[in-house]
Amino acid sequence: MTNPSFLHTDRQGAVVTLTMRQPETRNALTGNSAVDEIVAACAAIARDPGVRAVVLTGNDPAFSSGGNVKDMRRYETEDTDPEKIREEYRHGIQRIPKALYHLDVPVIAAVNGPAIGAGLDLSCMCDIRIASERATFAESFVKVGIVPGDGGAWLLPRVVGMSKASEMAFTGDTLDAAQALACGLVSRVVPHDDLLPEALRLAERIAANPGGVLRMTKRLLREGERSSLETLLEMSAAYQAIAHRSPDHHEAVRAFIEKRRPVFRVS
Fold it and tell me: What is the pLDDT of residues 170-222, one digit of tens each?
């Protein structure tokens, strides 16, 4: 994998770390190549069966400031048709949730600092969120007179519930790390210097499991958010039939019986 201008990619074994690295814009997601690079990284990971876990983080001081507010001045100075703006969103930042949220590989957001607007929504596209003590979170679109244009109105209620999501979206207020933990936005808060090591340790524990089963498990969790129980049960039965016939399952059963650690395939 290459390391282009916005997103730095590092791989250690079955774990890929994606680091947003434009601290001068607080890792803004618009007005640069962020969309293309995140989408391309997700596509590369999806094609590689050897990747079993991903960590997404940012270069300090921010995780991501979301949309580049300075770039939005052009909507005041340019005579831009609303239909063109709509298409700009559809073919721009809205490509990120389609790529990241639907990625079958488990993704951990290591939130190192402010996650604001689309930056907060970016963390909600991940499966697990771990926060530095310096992290803050805000669904702040209303503060700059716009709506969540990147899927936040769909993502945030699924993480914190409709009541808390509504409070955050209607006020634009900022939560600190402790408040984010209390409402379930993040699963843990750690000292800042421990954030990435903690996220990588979790990623390695995830990656120690069979890759194919991890991807199917994530897909079932995602489908469970919108499917009926009957539909999910049918999908689970089909996936289980595949899993039962996999060499990794056979190895896991043998290892359990023989009281040893399993040795799974390296894809």
Answer: 999 999 999 999 999 999 999 999 999 999 999 999 999 999 999 999 999 99
166-194 core/surface letters (b: 16 or more CB in 10 A; e: else): eebbeeeebbebeebbebebbeebbeeee
In angstroms, the first-to-last Cα distance of the chain is 17
Distance separating alpha carbons of residues 217 and 104, to the nearest angstrom: 9
Please give the full DSSP string across 30-92, using - where no structure is assigned.
SSSSHHHHHHHHHHHHHH-TT--EEEEEE-TT-SB--S-TGGGGHHHHS---HHHHHHHHHTT
Residues in the chain: 267
β-pair type (188-190, 7-12): unpaired
- At 4, is the pLDDT very low, low, confident or very high (cuts 50, 70, 90)? low
HSE-CB at 181 with a 13 A cutoff on CA atoms is 14
- Cβ neighbourhood burial of 236 (10 Å; 0-12, 13-18, 19+): middle
Q: Work out the burial of residue 150: count CB atoms within 10 Å of its CB; fewer than 13 is exposed, 13-18 middle, 19 or more buried.
A: buried
pLDDT, position 76: 74
d(CA 257, CA 251): 10
Q: What angle do CA 246, 107, 144 make, to 5 degrees?
A: 150
Encode pLDDT of 120-179 as tens digits. Answer: 999 999 999 999 999 999 999 999 999 999 999 999 999 999 999 999 999 999 999 999
For residue 112, give every residue at least 6 positions away whose Cβ sits within 8 Å of its Cβ, in sequence order, or none. 57, 58, 60, 62, 63, 132, 134, 135, 192, 195, 196
- Phi then psi dihedrals of residue 15, to 5 deg: -110, 130
Instruction: Determine contact, residues 96/90, Cβ cutoff 8 Å.
Output: no
